[in-house]
């Protein structure tokens, strides 16, 4: 089986009703992103940050995977599919994807503020003074701006092995995630689906750009690949 590696971003989750990470004005749900997506923001106003992610977590209980997620699962009949996602939702897993790497963490997990290796499943609200048995305050298991991306090396290894690379619903503006495409030297085909695709010329690769929604673009790619 050929290796099909998927790089997914906010655009695939948007069709399930999850807002994209950043609106055109640079705000995320009305907040400056550094207020709610940085460790400094957490230190300055932990209650605001915890409440922000509580709202995101509650929303995640209300949404479902969409047709684009399902088509990626369907491709597993024909390819060894690895999904590398910038999304913190679990919609790929709920759709049935077998292998999902989360670059930026997961909403349904929390971790210790003292030891990031202590990670726990978490589907309810999280509050100040909610601690683990070691007495550490718990925080969202989210990779905030300025923090290391623990899964990056694993993701690079997968992209290096890709026979086909499928980029879906991402602006290719957030690094280091956007830099993964540079490692796809073996890929015989690269597809890029996004309603507002970035300029891909500076990647110096032959990329098939599909300026469409995740679902419509996935239908086209599925037909070509199968």
What is this structure, in a nutshell?
The protein is α/β, with parallel strands linked by helices.
Task: Give a written overview of the molecule.
With 226 residues, this protein is α/β, with parallel strands linked by helices. It has two domains: 1-18 and 65-104 and 149-226, Rossmann fold; 19-62 and 109-142, SIR2/SIRT2 'Small Domain'. Helix content is 29%, strand content 22%. The protein has eight helices and eleven strands. A six-stranded parallel β-sheet has the order 5-4-1-9-10-11, sandwiched between helices. A hairpin with a 6-residue loop joins strand 6 (105-112) and strand 7. The mean pLDDT is 93.
CATH superfamily of the largest domain: TPP-binding domain
Give the beta-strand count: 11
Second CATH tier, the architecture of the largest domain: 3-Layer(aba) Sandwich
User: Helical percent range?
Assistant: 25-40%
The gyration radius over C-alpha positions equals: 18 Å
Please describe the structure with a list of short key phrases separated by commas or semicolons.
226 residues, 2 domains, single chain, six-stranded parallel beta sheet, SIR2/SIRT2 'Small Domain', three-stranded antiparallel beta sheet, alpha/beta, 22% strand, Rossmann fold
């Amino acid at each position: 089986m050929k290796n099909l590696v998927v790089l997914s971003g906010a655009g695939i989750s948007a069709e399930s009703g999850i807002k994209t990470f950043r609106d055109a004005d640079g705000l995320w749900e009305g907040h400056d992103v550094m207020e709610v997506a940085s460790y400094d923001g957490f230190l300055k106003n932990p209650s605001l940050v915890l409440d922000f992610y509580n709202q995101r977590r509650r929303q995640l209980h209300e949404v479902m995977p969409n047709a684009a997620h399902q088509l990626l699962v369907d491709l597993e009949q024909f390819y060894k599919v690895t999904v590398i996602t910038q999304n913190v939702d679990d919609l790929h897993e709920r759709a049935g994807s077998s292998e999902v790497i989360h670059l930026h963490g997961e909403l349904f997990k929390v971790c210790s503020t003292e030891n990031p290796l202590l990670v726990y499943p978490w589907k309810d609200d999280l509050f100040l003074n909610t601690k683990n048995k070691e007495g550490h305050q718990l925080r969202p298991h989210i990779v905030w701006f300025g923090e290391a991306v623990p899964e990056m090396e694993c993701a690079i290894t997968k992209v290096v092995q890709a026979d086909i690379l499928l980029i879906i619903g991402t602006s290719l503006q957030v690094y280091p995630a956007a830099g993964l495409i540079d490692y796809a030297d073996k890929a015989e085909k690269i597809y890029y689906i996004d309603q507002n695709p970035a300029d891909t010329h500076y990647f110096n690769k032959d990329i098939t750009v599909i300026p469409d929604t995740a679902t419509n673009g996935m239908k086209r790619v599925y037909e070509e690949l199968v």
